[in-house]
Specification:
elongated; single chain; 210 residues; 87% helix; mainly alpha
């Protein structure tokens, strides 16, 4: 008997001594782990909402918007942007909570797999939507500040040709890339880590169903 066969035989002996988990035990373990992950996704979205709400409150109470208005920033546009942003957050918070309750009430591996996929899709749409809204908001805000008020010194320099337009475009692109890059990194670290764990649970459940 060669060395490989001896190793296989020894491994077989060790494998027989290992505790065997039943289908129900593995399923319950996956259910508990998945429920915990989705709960954290919901908690993070709530914290995100509270942080944005606090930042919005401090900004408005600190009269920062009044200073921006003097530079040409449209206050009504800022209110509309805030309403849209908070509506998106509330909508997805509701979806995350709904996904959490569905997973808690799941009674089969097949249904749990389906709910895991739904949750991962919801997170993906949430991240994409937020990044799109952020991009549009930055473009509108920066464009307004550059061109919205003739009393704005920078805008006057651009309109008079003292500052080339390509410089303005380049500055706008840099601001957008940095802002989106930072936001994407935060989402990747928070939601990406959790959705990867959900994917791992999905793969384990898939093996159960085979």
């Amino acid at each position: 008997m060669d060395e490989l066969e001896l190793l296989k035989k020894d491994w077989k002996k060790q494998e027989d001594k290992l505790p065997k988990l039943s289908y129900d035990e593995i399923y319950k373990m996956m259910l508990k782990k998945s429920s915990s992950i989705v709960k954290w996704i919901f908690i993070i979205s709530v914290l995100e909402f509270l942080i944005f709400a606090f930042a919005e409150l401090i900004t408005r109470l600190g009269k920062s918007y009044e200073k921006l208005e003097e530079m040409g920033y449209n206050s009504s546009m800022s209110i509309i942007a805030s309403i849209i942003s908070f509506s998106i957050l509330i909508y997805f918070m509701t979806r995350f909570f709904s996904n959490y309750k569905k997973i808690q009430a799941t009674d089969s591996a097949k249904l749990l797999m389906k709910n895991i996929l739904k949750t991962r899709r919801t997170v993906k749409y949430y991240v994409i939507t937020n990044l799109v809204v952020l991009t549009i908001s930055i473009i509108l805000a920066v464009t307004t500040l550059f061109y919205g008020n003739v009393n704005n010194e920078f805008a006057n320099q651009v309109l008079n040709g003292d500052i080339p337009k390509y410089v303005v475009v380049l500055m706008l692109l840099i601001i957008i890339v940095i802002a989106i890059g930072l936001m994407a990194f935060v989402y990747f670290m928070l939601y990406g880590l959790l959705t990867r764990k959900l994917k791992k649970n999905y793969e384990e459940l898939k093996k159960l169903e085979v």
